[in-house]
Design a protein that fits this description.
The chain is built from nine helices and no strands. By secondary structure, the protein is mainly α. About 5% of the residues have low confidence.
């Protein structure tokens, strides 16, 4: 019986040796991956720790920094006339990194009234395009075309508009990133800051006529020749914040508006809405 099994054992031993070698290699690779991950997370901790201290000392930073960075980078682009084909994607990436570093903790996770927020977003979109749809020369009036507000004309060259890569980044930035950073700033921070400098003491959705109107007016000025519909949108979003007391719901409404407008721009060729 021993003699019968000997050849089988001899034949099996090379296979066993190969299996053992593979297991050892797998263990070595696993250890290396573990070391890399440990190093990565320790580096992340080293980066995030000072950010946490900064946000504790300056609680407004998570609400203000991403929006401020976006506007500053936009100003740099306009001043230096940088190629929009890569400028916007770079701006999106930079602001996303800032969001991840300083704002993750204050971004709400769940809306309270998802369906209603979607309806509000669609309603604002319809308000946004209605004047130009009803009166084709509406934006040619001096109120919407002057040295202060500019003109309703796109700054995007035709080759940029035809770039799929640019459109993907622009759609992401318009429909997802911008609603988050703007709602953090306008309704998450400024509406409360105008009531009390220590805005953390002011619950979301607290009413103050000065806060509601001033925030809406400033929001309108951000939209250049579309300041009129920007004012309407600001008042509606502010009202929705008062109603829901939910930053997530305002983000959803804002995102739906921007997504609808982006589809309208790309599908219908209404590039004048993307200044």
């Amino acid at each position: 019986m021993t003699n019968t099994l000997a050849p089988a054992c001899a034949a099996a031993s090379p296979h066993a040796a190969i299996t053992k070698l593979k297991v050892k290699k797998a263990i070595v690779v696993t250890k290396r991956i573990s070391r890399i991950l440990a190093l990565h997370f320790s580096d992340s901790d080293r980066i995030l720790r000072p950010m946490k201290r900064l946000t504790e000392e300056l609680p407004g930073v998570p609400y203000v920094a991403p929006f401020a960075a976006f506007i500053i980078l936009l100003g740099v682009k306009n001043s230096l006339d940088i190629n929009a084909n890569w400028e916007y994607p770079v701006r999106v990436v930079i602001v996303c990194v800032i969001l991840w570093l300083v704002s993750r903790a204050v971004i709400p996770k769940r809306p309270a009234r998802l369906l209603s927020s979607v309806v509000v977003g669609i309603f604002v979109f319809l308000i946004w395009i209605a004047p130009d749809w009803i009166w084709p020369l509406y934006r040619s009036h001096w109120l919407f075309e002057n040295a202060v507000v500019g003109a309703a004309k796109t700054s995007l060259p035709s080759n940029v508009r035809a770039s799929l890569g640019f459109l993907v980044f622009r759609l992401f930035g318009t429909a997802i990133l911008v609603p988050v950073i703007e709602e953090l700033f306008w309704r998450g921070w400024l509406m409360r800051y105008l009531i009390n400098v220590d805005f953390r003491k002011v619950p979301l959705g607290t009413y103050s006529a000065t806060s509601v109107w001033l925030t809406a007016v400033l929001f309108a000025t951000e939209h250049g020749p579309y300041w009129d519909v920007g004012l309407c949108a600001g008042l509606i979003y502010n009202s929705w914040m008062l109603r829901t007391r939910s930053l997530a719901d305002c983000m959803i409404a804002h995102a739906v508006t921007n997504a609808c407008l982006a589809i309208y721009v790309i599908a219908g060729g209404h590039w004048e809405y993307w200044l």
